[in-house]
Amino acid sequence: MSKSIFELVDNLPKNNVTTMVLNSLDFAIPGQWQNTTNFEQMIREVTGERDEEMIQKIGDRAVWLFNDKTQGYQNALWLYQNVDKSDYALGAAALANKVGSKIGFLNFLNRLTPNNEKAQAIDLAIKLVVELVAFCQINGLPGDSIGDFVAALREYESDALMRMTALICIDGLVPFGADFIMKVESTLNNLSTQELNNNAGFSSVSKLIPGNNSEGKLQFISNSFEAVKSWMIGFVSSHNLTQNEVMKNLSNFVEFSEDKLDYVAAFLDMSTNYFEHTGTQSIARSLISRAMMEV
Q1: In this predicted model, what pLDDT tens digit does every residue of 176-215 receive, in sequence order?
Q2: How far apart are CA 264 and CA 114, in angstroms?
């Protein structure tokens, strides 16, 4: 990594399409996510520390831990960055003049095509596995620790909870509606290794997905989705999440017509990097928490 963790946090955008999308999902988990884009401020938030000397020590230790390649923090960030890059096709420059006001969604239709349903389902599954493997990397666990990850989901909060909320809403409910779990499950059950290998998202992160070959990796992806399925069903139910509710909140900044919902997922994939954004924040919080215990 060419940048330190404090630079990565300090360089996070305060206001762009990604942050607007995430803020629109606050209705699902009110007050859970704050867009902290200053590393020193994050140290204060996580530790409650006010002593400047101690804050400096914690920050220095966090930077050292992140730079230590025997730890898994850089691998986790690599996963978060690469799974988003495979989605990113619409340049930020094309959207820059739209940030801060409603984005006229129909203006972009000539530059978009609706996401292929199978590709969208694979994308959700790959992002879920990236979250699982990143969790293991951050916590020093074997990469195939599915059970530990499922147990930890019950304790997710802040940036991590927002990331999973966005995954369910943006990659699940928006393109598929209430049946998104069945759609993804059906896709995985009928997916060939060749189709998986041809998927850009999988190719971008496959080297860190457990499995000796493509068949083993596909099995791991399927097993991971199956294990997390109940949690996602419960989350949707307990938070009363529906496609209509998500779209209603997104409409606060994106204008779209009801017959163009198949384009919305493509637009969001191409114009946001919510995994990298919140993933950077989660990694920083984990580093700070560990550093606080070690100094």
Answers
A1: 999 999 999 999 999 999 999 988 889 889 999 999 999 9
A2: 8
